[in-house]
Amino acid sequence: KVLEGFFEISMMVAQAHVKAEVPYFLCHDDIVWAAGAVFHPAWMRKYVFPRHKRMWQPLLEAGIKVLFCSDGNFTEFIDDIADAGAQGFIMEPLTDMAYICEKYGQSHVIVGNADSRILQFGTMEQIRAEVKRCADLGKSCPGYFYACGNHIPYTVPVEAVECYLEACEEFGKS
After folding, report:
1. How far is CA 35 from CA 23, 41, 95, 151, in A?
2. Quick check: 14 and 55 in contact, CB under 8 A?
3. Is 0.90 topped by the overall pTM?
4. Residues with Cβ < 8 Å from 136, sequence gap 6 or more?
5. DSSP 3-state assignment of 26?
6. From CA 57, how far away is CA 115, in angstroms rounded?
7. 101 conformational bin, left if phi > 0, alpha if psi -120 to 50, beta if neither
8. What HEC string does 69-129 produce?
9. Mean of the pLDDT values across residues 59-72?
10. pLDDT at 149 over 90
């Protein structure tokens, strides 16, 4: 009953996006922790993903692109999310970007995977290596965008942000 009530509220948000004719819908649903699923995967597949599919259907019919975002590691649910209709994945470094690139890299938007902890605590060489890791995975994917999972906190040194941006520019050209 509670889940259905929350779904009805979420459906109103989706319908408002359809009425507003926006080009994209971002569904940020923290369905996982760093270690994986918050709830048992069978429960998620029975109760959550069918609701995502119902909520996203009017958006997709209106030509609105659905992008899914979650903190943590949602690797085990990538296929479920795609089957529900998501056309893009926004992720932290815990989610398996290699799997996403291999299976969905030619058809879906892929955003992120760079580890903000490396920007916070790593050397300039480690920052460049992290950007290169993402570039190497995403280079054959036409819809890949650089981004730091969990964003860049204000405590990251300016020099580290500059190094990250320079590496994004450099590796984005190769």
Report:
1. 33, 13, 10, 19
2. yes
3. yes
4. none
5. strand
6. 32
7. alpha
8. ECCCCCHHHHHHHHHHCCCEEEECCCCCHHHHHHHHCCCCEEEECEEHHHHHHCCHHHHHH
9. 97
10. no
